[in-house]
Specification:
D-Maltodextrin-Binding Protein, domain 2; 15 helices; alpha+beta; four-stranded mixed sheet; Dipeptide-binding Protein, domain 3; Dipeptide-binding Protein, domain 1
Amino acid sequence: MVKSLRFLTLALFLLMLTVSAVSAQDGSVLVIGWEQEPPKLSPWADNTFGSLITVNFTNRDLWDWDTNREIYPIMAAEIPSFENGGVVTLDNGNTQVTVHLREGMKWTDGEPITTDSCLFWHELMMDPTMGAVQRGNYPDAVESFEVVDDTTFVITYNKPWPDWSNDAPPSCALPAHIMRPIVEAEGTIDNAPQGIGQNVVGYGPYKLDEWAVGSQITLTKNPNWDQEPGKFDRIILRFITDTAQMLNALEAGEIDVTFNWSDDLVDSYSAIENVEVFKTDGVYGDAVWMNVGNYKGTGEAHPMLGDPKVREAIVRAIDRATLAEELIAPGVSVPKSWTPEQFWAEDLPFWDYDVDKANALLDEAGWVDSNGNGTRDKDGQELVLRFFTTTRQIRMDYQVVIQEYLSEVGVGTQLLPVPSNILFAPFSDRGILDTGDFDLAIFALSSNALSPAFAAPDWFGCGNTPSAESPTGKNGWGACDPEFDRLDLEVSSTVDPVKRLELAGEAQKHFFDMGFWHGLYMRPTWYAVDTTVVNVDEAVKSPGTLASNYFNHIEYWQPVQ
């Protein structure tokens, strides 16, 4: 008996030593609730929660923006401008930008950062065979890229390009010494380990140590980061996709930060002891998206939603203003267009709630309830639509109420909430949106908070529907209006601010007339932070103005002493 007690005492002593060693080794730890596990990191996938990891934590780039929409340098020694000679208008009217990198920067593996990585990005953007990544306007807008020396490069656009800093900008965020050998060996970066979080080499305050699929991502301080050092030794991004579980995890102390949740949860989070709740201006607007021209990925008009009368009828049948007031918060407005409100035309049209109009439009379109079952039909086909969204609770709530509204005018819906990594997966992974395998969907796609341009060729342009021949296309809903494309491209290349806004107003009306996007609400970005773990100061409350800026000041977040 005495011998057994001695062994038990020894075991407990060793266990206590182990726990003490782990605690000492852990240092300061910040656990952030991450509502979506990305399929891959950026730029391998265009998922917000994958992009946040790279642009905020592991792979900072040339510059970023603060809450006042003011640009500030990171990799760049200074922001190019007309005043310092970094931006010039050539004799032919085209824009040319010279960028100088700061000297002495290193990647997480200790290799020096040079303009070779900036050149690699240019090569990746200009050659679609190098990888199925989002290129936006870059290939169409950039004329040339010249490396002057290890810290200087010149990028020349083939037109006046006022948004060079945020639309088709240069980038140096991918390490050429890692990526170029992969391209030389495989011809593409599509299968690069970095895309799935393995051996991630970057330039940021933190480095990615481990991606436990289905569980969490672990980040630790980057010893080669030469700017403001991170204050937490370790940051864990814990995947919690269920809204209630996220709330419970913060209350139980399993996580220290939640963010990006909806307004209806303010009271619930505020009621948690030692938690501070605050919000910042958001750039995401949830909307109903309609598949108008890519029916089941065929690139053809939708048999029901291809008719503009049906599209208008569906929107007229939904009381979006009341939904925003009751499901989100009093005073929340319904956005009229995808672009930021400061760029809206004064006479921008809007479809108000009007059930009589909805019924009349459906009648005109030939959809009637011929068998009396409550659902309209035409040519033997019932008007029943597959309605997708993510498992975000507020979106599922919207789905349920919208289903009730639509049933009142004889439109049936099948509600299909799915995990975000399935809805937003790329075409190559059979993503629902990219393959056009949906009828209606609720989700948010952020606009550019710095520009009135829509970036039409990328998300909304004719000919950019994803397909086996063009897997990087993003217009999975098949919207197409050549005049909209023309106007938006002119907005992108117009320097005069007055003329630019005039053109943007015309483009917005054409965007409205396509009738595939219908705003539900602009959501602020809410945070709930455990004040026993984080010192909630101005740095914590001051992310920037773009969709990727939730944690662009993470190195300034300080643990409570």
